[in-house]
Design goal:
The chain is an all-alpha fold and 468 residues long.
């Protein structure tokens, strides 16, 4: 059993990192693990492309709508009990996903799985901030940070290998023994802003529903009403948070332009990487004719890039500072996106793997210094909230990428059904879509250059705000 006090022994510190890394990796892998199996699930459950997207989006919707609230709940009611509940829910929902008899059951159970995943993602960094000794905080946060991009990138590769050997249900059943093997952690009790929690959840649901339904319904009345609901809801939410005694969200954090900009850039970067993870399996399997196993192995190169670049980015940030490393990461991803736009029907396996390694791996140069600095400098009682906000920006990017980039891909592929699209149309769609993602990354670079100025890291400015 782990305790809230700082681990005094190396073995206890290692156990904390192992448990948090395992659960973080597990929840991150399930964000994208279904993408590589969408074509297999389509045939097995007789589903259409929109339904298949919801297999991924239902998980992301649950994570996105709850992640800030979960971070705050952990601060108030105790991280240990919430975290253990999250592991149990995630594990049980994974079992139900593996037993699904229809596409609708799978979508519903993926949503429950997402609730558990939101708990694991939101609280892992906060618990680490409480339990890891100060002298090892950078090392510990670097290890946890690498679990996220590694999990996001490993999802398709692990999924491809499992599907090739055991079938698509195995990608969910894999979580059951892992979840049962995990252990964790604890804290104090104060008041919770339930109205704020419910309102923020409703706002995020309206946002996600509007961007996903827009793909199939266009700017219909229902889509416009959902979008309007999100706008009105966020205005009401901000008003309530400003005037409540125990707010769910400390709005003073957003007076810090550097902190706010880092969250905005995170949304844009994860929009591009998630979009890539959604559309590339169709390119590899349908356009190139590769098996799920081979496709999964090729997608694994992105995970390798993250694993190699994360410790390197930590060393670079310590030597040169956060700002140049973050800017380098965004720039490198933009260049990588332009290279990704060049892949086509004649692109070799080696060429694709090298480009994907570079594009996906360079995310580490933004994520590592950004996450480490903010969590390390946050006050203990606000680490759950800070972790929740970081994860919210990530999951909004994941959700937006899955829906918007998927829609952009379908538009450029000039087809309403990707399953029946020709290899040439898919290749054309890949080219044009990655030109769009390069533009998104250019916007992220502009924000970074303007707002993430050198001389003051996001964490440092955040600390100033909290001290006021």
């Amino acid at each position: 059993m782990l305790h809230v006090s700082k681990p005094k022994k190396t073995t206890e510190y290692g156990l904390v990192i192992f448990v948090l890394s395992l659960t973080t990796l597990m929840s991150a892998i399930d964000t994208n693990i279904v993408n590589i199996g969408l074509t297999t699930i389509e045939k097995s459950l007789d589903a259409n492309f929109i339904s298949l997207q919801w297999v991924a989006l239902s998980y992301l919707l649950a994570v996105t709508s709850l992640i800030v609230g979960i971070g705050r709940i952990g601060d108030i009611f105790g991280k240990k009990r919430i975290f253990i509940f999250g592991i149990g829910l995630f594990t049980f929902a994974s079992l139900l996903c593996g037993a699904s008899a229809s596409i609708y059951e799978l979508i519903a159970f993926r949503a429950f799985q997402g609730i558990g995943g939101s708990i694991l993602m939101a609280l892992s960094f906060a618990i680490a901030g409480d339990m890891i000794p100060k002298e090892k905080i950078i090392q510990g946060m670097s290890i946890l940070t690498v679990m996220l991009p590694t999990g996001f990138a490993l999802g398709p590769s692990v999924g491809g290998l499992l599907i090739g050997v055991f079938g698509w249900r195995s990608i969910f059943l894999l979580n059951v023994p892992i979840g049962l093997a995990a252990i964790p952690v604890t804290e104090k009790i104060r008041k919770l802003d339930m109205w704020g929690l419910f309102l923020l959840t409703a706002v995020l649901i309206c946002y996600v529903m509007s961007i996903t339904l827009a793909q199939s319904h266009g700017f219909s009345k229902s889509v416009l009403l959902l979008a309007a609901g999100a706008v009105v809801g966020i205005a009401v939410f901000l008003f309530l948070e400003k005037n409540t005694e125990f707010p769910l969200l400390d709005l003073s954090l957003f007076r810090n332009s550097v902190f706010s900009a880092s969250l905005a850039v995170s949304v844009l970067l994860y929009t591009t990487t998630t979009g890539a993870l959604v559309i590339l399996p169709f390119y590899l399997q349908q356009a190139k004719g590769l098996s799920t196993s081979v496709s999964g192995i090729m997608m694994m190169t992105g995970a390798v890039g993250c694993a190699l670049f994360t410790p390197l980015s930590g060393v670079a940030a310590k030597r040169f500072g956060d700002f140049p490393v973050i800017i380098f990461g965004i720039t490198a991803m933009g260049i990588g996106s332009l290279f990704m736009s060049t892949v086509g029907l004649s692109t070799s396996v080696v060429t694709f793997s090298v480009i994907w390694f570079f594009f996906n791996g360079c995310l580490a140069f933004f994520q590592t210094p950004n996450n480490t600095s903010i969590i390390a400098h946050a006050k203990p009682q606000q680490r759950g909230l800070a972790s929740g906000l970081l994860n919210l920006s990530r999951t909004i990017g994941l959700t937006t990428g899955a829906a918007v980039i998927g829609a952009v891909f379908c538009t450029f592929a000039r087809t309403a059904s990707i399953g029946s699209a020709s290899p040439r149309k898919i290749a054309d769609g890949i080219h044009d879509t990655f030109i769009v993602t390069a533009g998104i990354l250019a916007c992220a670079l502009f924000i970074g250059l303007i707002a993430l100025r050198p001389g003051k890291s996001p964490a440092a400015e955040n600390t100033d705000e909290l001290a006021d």
